[in-house]
Task: inverse folding
C-alpha cells in the first residue's frame, strides 16, 4: 500500500481535462494496491480511482485488464468500468508511466465475513466467470503451480527456513501438487486473487470486485478454490466456520453448478492456490527489509491452509 | 504518508454508528499525515476524514486542536469542523488510540502556486489569526528557536556534516537567531506549519486549511514568515518569483495590516522558521534509514532559504 509517485494538483487537473468527467475537485492518494499508485479523484460530476501502473504490470497487458473491466461491467457484473478519454483511449501516459481512470464503486471490504456475505461473493464470482466466457482476449496464467514452485526453488531451502523452519516442506508438497495438477477443467477468464481486500460490499451485497491485475485464462474451479482459501480461514490457518465455505460454494453453484470433475479437483486446486500465495509471500518476505514500513504477509498462513486441504480432502468443501 | 493501523470494515462501521452521520458507504486509507493514520470515509450523508492519532501528538492536546477547528470553523474560516459523537465528544478511542472524525473539504494542494493563490492564502491566514484571538485555550510552542537549535545541537556536528558538509554552519547561525529573537509581537493561535500540503484550493480560492497539529500560541508575524518560507521558493532554494511573497503579504495585510515592529521583525522570524524546519528535517533524516520507503525531506532546502533571508534582509519581503 503506497503512493509511489507524486502527482501535483496541476498535473492531475491537466490529466482530468483529457476526460469528459467534469472538473477536478479533490484528489487523495490512497493506500491501496502494492504494484500501483492510486488516487481517489473527485470531480464536479462523480468520483473515480486513478491508477498509475508502477511495476509488475506489463503495459502490454493493459488492453486485456481494462477491456475486461468494460466487458464485465457491460454484463452487469459488479466491476468498475474503465473511463475512456476524449479520444477513446482506455489509458494515457504521464511521463513514461501508464495511467487509467476507473469508476469509483461504493462499499467496504469485510474483515470478518459472514455466510451471507460469502454466498454473495460466490454468486458474483460465478457471474463474472459466465460473463467473461464471451471476452475475446486471453492471457496466460504465469502463476500456476509449475511457476510458483520454481519461485520457491529459486528462494532456496535455506532462505525459506529462515522465514520459518517448517516452510521448506513446501518444496516436496509442491512437487506433488504439480504432478497431480488437474487439466481440462472448464475455463474462462479468472480473477485469481479474489481476497476480501479486492471485494467491496455494502451489508451482504457485493458492490465491487476490484484489482483484476492477476486476471488470466484458467480453470473456473481454480478461482473458486482461490476464493475459498482466501476467505474461509482465520489468521491461525484453521477454517473459521464450515458454513463460510459451504455458503461460498452454494452461492457459486446457484449460478453455475460445478461439474463432477471440478468438484473432485477442488482439494488439489486449493492446494495449488496455497502454493501460489506461499510463493509470492515468501519472495516478498525475502525481498522486503525487516525494518521497512511495509507489513510483510506471512507465507506460513497459507502453509497451514495447504496442510488443512491435504488433511481434509473433499470434506474441506462440504 | 502512511496508514499505520489496520481498521476493518466492521470496526469502522461500529465507530461511524457512534456519530449521527448516516451509514458507512466507503472507507479508503489515505496517504496523508506523517504522525497519524487517515481514512477518507463516505457515509450515506457526506464525506469525512477519520484521523487516528498514532504518535507525536499528545492526546492531552486534543481538546486544543479539535476545539480550535470548531472555533475557526464557527468564524467561517476555511477549516474543517470536528464532528462530535452522539454524546458530544470530539474524539473517541479505538483500543488505546484516539480517533476523531473531521469534516471533508474539497480542493487540491497547489504545487506551483501563482500570485493570486498566494494572495488568497495570505487572506485566509490573516482570517484565522483574527478569529483565533477569541479562542480561550493556549498551547506553548515547543518548536521555537531555542528548542529547535537544541535539537540540532543534539544531532551533533558530525551527524549534520554527514547529511551535507554545509549543514553544520546552521549551529552558529542558530545562536544568532536565538540571541536576536523578537519578543512582544502581537500574538494569537498560529498554524505554524502552513505548507502547500496543508492548504486545499479550488482555482484561486482557499477551500481548506488543514493539519493544525503544530498549532500553538505565538507571534502572528512568525506564522506569516513560516508561510513565506514554505511557499515562495523552488527546490533550489532561490525565491521563485518576488511576486509570490508580495502577493502573500498583500493578501494578509488586506485583512490585518502588519505593525512597524512586525514588519521589521520579518527577516529574523523567517530565519527562525528556517531553523525550525532544518532541525526537524535533520532529525527525521538521521532517524530514517536511507533504504526506507519514505521520502526524506532534505534539510538543505531550508538551509538555502535561511541564507537567502540572511543575505536579503528586509528586501526579501518587498
Result:
Amino acid at each position: 500500500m503506497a503512493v509511489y509517485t507524486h502527482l501535483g494538483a496541476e498535473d492531475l487537473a491537466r490529466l482530468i481535462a483529457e476526460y469528459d468527467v467534469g472538473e477536478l475537485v479533490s484528489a487523495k492518494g490512497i493506500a491501496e494496491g502494492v504494484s500501483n499508485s492510486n488516487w481517489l479523484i473527485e470531480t464536479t460530476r462523480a468520483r473515480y480511482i486513478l491508477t498509475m501502473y508502477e511495476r509488475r504490470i506489463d503495459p502490454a497487458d493493459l488492453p486485456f485488464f481494462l477491456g475486461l473491466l468494460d466487458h464485465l461491467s457491460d454484463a452487469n457484473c459488479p466491476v468498475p468500468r474503465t473511463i475512456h478519454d476524449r479520444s477513446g483511449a482506455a489509458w494515457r501516459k504521464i511521463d513514461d508511466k501508464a495511467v487509467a481512470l476507473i469508476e469509483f464503486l461504493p462499499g467496504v471490504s469485510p474483515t470478518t465475513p459472514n455466510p451471507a456475505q460469502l454466498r454473495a461473493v460466490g454468486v458474483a464470482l460465478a457471474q463474472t466467470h459466465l460473463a467473461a466466457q464471451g471476452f475475446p482476449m486471453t492471457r496466460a496464467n504465469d502463476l500456476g503451480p509449475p511457476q510458483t514452485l520454481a519461485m520457491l526453488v529459486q528462494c532456496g531451502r535455506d532462505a525459506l527456513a529462515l522465514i520459518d523452519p517448517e516452510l521448506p516442506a513446501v518444496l516436496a508438497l509442491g512437487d506433488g501438487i504439480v504432478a497431480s495438477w488437474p487439466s481440462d477443467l472448464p475455463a474462462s477468464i479468472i480473477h485469481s486473487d479474489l481476497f476480501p481486500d479486492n471485494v467491496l460490499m455494502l451489508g451482504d451485497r457485493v458492490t465491487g470486485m476490484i484489482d483484476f491485475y492477476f486476471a488470466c485464462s484458467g480453470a473456473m474451479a481454480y478461482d473458486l478454490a482461490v476464493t475459498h482459501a482466501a476467505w474461509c480461514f482465520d489468521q491461525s490457518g484453521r477454517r473459521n466456520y464450515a458454513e463460510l465455505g459451504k455458503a461460498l460454494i452454494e452461492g457459486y453453484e446457484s449460478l453455475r453448478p460445478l461439474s463432477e470433475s471440478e468438484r473432485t479437483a477442488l482439494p488439489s486446486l486449493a492446494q495449488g492456490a496455497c502454493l501460489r500465495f506461499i510463493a509470492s509471500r515468501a519472495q516478498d518476505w525475502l525481498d522486503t527489509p525487516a525494518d521497512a514500513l511495509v507489513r510483510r504477509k506471512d507465507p506460513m498462513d497459507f502453509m497451514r491452509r495447504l496442510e488443512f486441504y491435504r488433511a481434509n480432502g473433499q470434506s474441506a468443501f462440504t
